[in-house]
Write a structure and sequence with these properties.
Blueprint lengths: L5 E2 L2 H14 L1 H20 L5 H5 L2 H18 L1 E2 L2 H28 L3
Parallel strand pairs: 1-2
Helix pairs in contact: 1-2, 1-4, 1-5, 2-4, 2-5, 4-5
Length: 110
């Protein structure tokens, strides 16, 4: 019989998932890939939003991977609301980083 996990607070869950993203190679590779996709869209002048990025399949995969890792290591459940907020916050970070990279590249082009 599966043991029911205690649910942790949304803020704590989000912090743990952020730590995992920046330390887990597989998840970092997915995050980097998303950032490159956003950079290409920005360079081409195609519309891209944080909301779209937060709800894309790759971001959902990252969210579920992080949620699973937190539950595995903390032995406590992470709510779907916490996962969705985490996905949005990570999408904002990726979007801002991509925008900065494109701006930097355009001002330092030779």
């Amino acid at each position: 019989m599966a043991q029911k996990l205690e649910t942790i607070s949304i803020d704590y869950a989000i912090q743990l998932m952020k730590i995992i993203v920046f330390n887990e190679k597989r998840i970092t590779a997915l995050s980097d890939w998303l950032q490159k996709c956003v950079e290409k869209r920005i360079q081409k002048g195609q519309p891209v939003t944080v909301e779209h990025l937060a709800n894309c399949g790759t971001m959902k995969r990252i969210g579920f991977l992080c949620k699973g890792m937190v539950e595995k290591f903390e032995k406590k459940a992470v709510s779907n609301d916490a996962r969705r907020v985490f996905q949005y916050e990570l999408a904002q970070i990726i979007f801002d980083d991509a925008k900065s990279e494109v701006e930097y590249a355009s001002t330092h082009a030779e």
